[in-house]
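Input record (one chain):
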Amino acid sequence: MQFEMKSSLLVIISALLLISASVPTAHRQASMAGVTTWKPQVNTLGWMKNKSYMPDVVDTAVSEHADSVLDSLALVISRRLDRMITSLDPEDAKPSVSKIVLGNLSIDHWCYPLEGSYVTSPYNKLREKDDSTFYHHTGVDIKTHINHDSIHAAFDGVVVASGVRSGYGNCITIRHAYGFETLYAHESKLLVHVGQRVHAGDVIGLTGMTGHATGDHLHFELFFRGQRYDPSMIFDHKHHTLQPAVLYLSGRLVERPYSRSV
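The corresponding structure, as predicted from the sequence alone:
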């Protein structure tokens, strides 16, 4: 982590030096083109940040060149921040994040929600209600061979709901960073309260069959910006690991296989 931060600082410093070196060049080019020029008598970076240093007749070529370099710098910083995402803890959230490389999440900051479990009903499976109507399963059902088994928080976050919910029975919702939320339903016992901070791996409740359930299990859901998504976008349910994938945080959550070029 320290190495990544140092590398990012070096990138930022290099880009700033590039700006300082580039502006005088733009002045010379503008002067040769017959554009009215003005040589700042203050630190170049200070002049760029504070437009009050600029005279009424602004050297347009320099201004446009500086904006272009600054835009490039912002892109570089954003990409470096993407690579530094090691948790979904709201307190560690970074600005301008466009994607999350799941493989970069620290082992201390994620946990499969039900150890030793297997899938009994996958996401989006067509299921029948008691009144013979059908619906698509909104999460994934996982269970172990032990009733009232321990349920773990999948990621660091804050409990935003803990109580009885129609259909879900005893249910917990945890809010994470970058618009993510996870939901844990049908619990026999709730062990956390609203407003409580939890860490990945913390025991938050016990499996059960409260609500609309036919056996002891955990119903697990994944949300991004209020929309449900298949939890298998993040978790490999067979091996209880994170998927080797990249999540792109645009208007919708998009998953792509991981490659070293991202």
